[in-house]
From TrEMBL:
Transmembrane helix listed as a keyword: yes
Any Pfam family the entry gives: AzlD
Record's protein name: AzlD domain-containing protein
Domain of life of the source: Bacteria
Species whose genome carries this gene: Campylobacter californiensis
Record field: transmembrane: 12-34, 46-63, 70-89, 95-112
Length: 114
């Protein structure tokens, strides 16, 4: 059979099938290779504290453009960070802390214009 006799639809179909097989193999291989792997205590500690690590990264990114030398001197950002810390200490839930502090920050900058 000559390649010129194969229609474009079949070539497209074969490309989709080969891509799906390649994707499946690349997704399954890591699970097959580490099925008997026991995580180290270091990896368990990172997994346990990942939410807090993400919070720190988000706070640093959010505060990078804060102007402390002009009005309002970062007041709304400071209050939002304080609320995030308090919410995280109370609820121990990263997502709740992010949502609550974001809502308060939006409230501060929209209502009080600070």
């Amino acid at each position: 059979m000559n390649i010129s006799t194969i229609s474009n639809e079949w070539i497209l179909f074969l490309a989709v099938i080969l891509s799906s097989i390649a994707t499946f193999i690349t997704r399954v291989t890591p699970f097959y290779m580490i099925k008997n792997y026991k995580p180290s205590p270091w990896l368990n500690a990172i997994q346990k504290h990942m939410g807090l690590m993400i919070m720190v990264i988000l706070v640093c990114y959010a505060l990078k453009d804060t102007r402390l030398n002009a009005y309002p001197y970062g007041a709304s950002e400071a209050m939002a960070v304080l609320i995030a810390i308090l919410a995280h200490l109370k609820f121990k839930n990263t997502l709740v802390s992010i949502i609550v502090s974001t809502l308060f920050y939006m409230f501060f900058i929209r209502v009080f214009k600070i």
